[in-house]
């Protein structure tokens, strides 16, 4: 069921400084910051040869990552995203095995325009896991 690691998401207090750090210290290929107001985040995509890192900074009053930053003021790993072929089949299989899907259980459109769901960290060893359906090419 599980496919590639799509990305690791890191919440940061200052996305410009974090992007500069990845660019300058590590020589990473870093995008410009992209504001996604309806998701309550500003995102920087860092392209690695085998996966991506997404830097996230809270945007607006109801950001889903604001609380995380409050608890981790200098930032930290927020979630990992794993690719699946078919998100409804993956969701149903996970639920049948007793795993908790966050929210209303219906996939939402993620930062890449693909359907995503989040799984309860307590069911995955303290890590928030996103599953993401990525179109095959
Ligand atoms: Co993500």
Account of the 3D structure:
The protein has 137 residues and is α+β, with helices and mostly antiparallel strands. The chain is 20% helix and 36% strand. It has a single domain (2-133), classed as 2,3-Dihydroxybiphenyl 1,2-Dioxygenase, domain 1 (Roll). The chain has helices at residues 15-26, 66-71, 87-96; strands at 2-11, 29-30, 34-36, 41-47, 52-58, 76-84, 108-109, 115-119, 129-133. It is globular and about 45 Å long. The chain binds cobalt (II) ion (CO). Cobalt (II) ion (CO) binds at residues 7, 9, 54, 79, 81, 110, 130.
The name of the CATH topology is 2,3-Dihydroxybiphenyl 1,2-Dioxygenase, domain 1
Q: Which cofactors or ions or other ligands sit in this model?
A: cobalt (II) ion
For the terminal residues, how far apart are their CA atoms?
Answer: 18 Å
Summing up helix and strand content along with how strands pair, one would put the structural category as alpha+beta
Q: Compute the CA-based radius of gyration.
A: 15 Å
Strand content: 35-45%
Assigned CATH class? Alpha Beta
Q: What string, H for helix and E for strand, traces the elements in order? A: EHEEEEHEHEEE
Low-confidence stretches: none
Please tell me what the overall shape is. globular
Number of helices: 3
CATH architecture: Roll
Mean pLDDT: 95
Number of DSSP-assigned strands: 9
Which percent bin holds the helix content?
A: 10-25%
According to CATH, the homologous superfamily is 2,3-Dihydroxybiphenyl 1,2-Dioxygenase, domain 1
Number of domains: 1
| Largest sheet composition | 9 strands, mixed
């Amino acid at each position: 069921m599980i496919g590639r690691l799509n990305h690791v998401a890191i919440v940061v207090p200052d996305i410009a400084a974090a992007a500069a750090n990845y660019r300058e210290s590590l020589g990473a290929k870093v995008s410009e910051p992209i504001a996604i107001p309806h998701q309550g985040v500003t995102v920087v995509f860092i392209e690695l040869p085998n996966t991506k890192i997404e830097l996230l900074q809270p945007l607006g009053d109801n950001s889903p990552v604001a609380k995380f930053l409050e608890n981790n003021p200098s930032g930290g790993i927020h979630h990992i995203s794993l690719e699946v072929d078919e998100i409804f089949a993956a969701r149903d299989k996970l639920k049948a095995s007793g795993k908790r899907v966050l929210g209303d259980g219906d996939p939402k459109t993620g930062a890449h325009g693909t359907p995503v769901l989040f799984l309860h960290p307590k069911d995955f060893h303290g890590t928030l896991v996103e599953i993401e359906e990525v179109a095959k090419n």
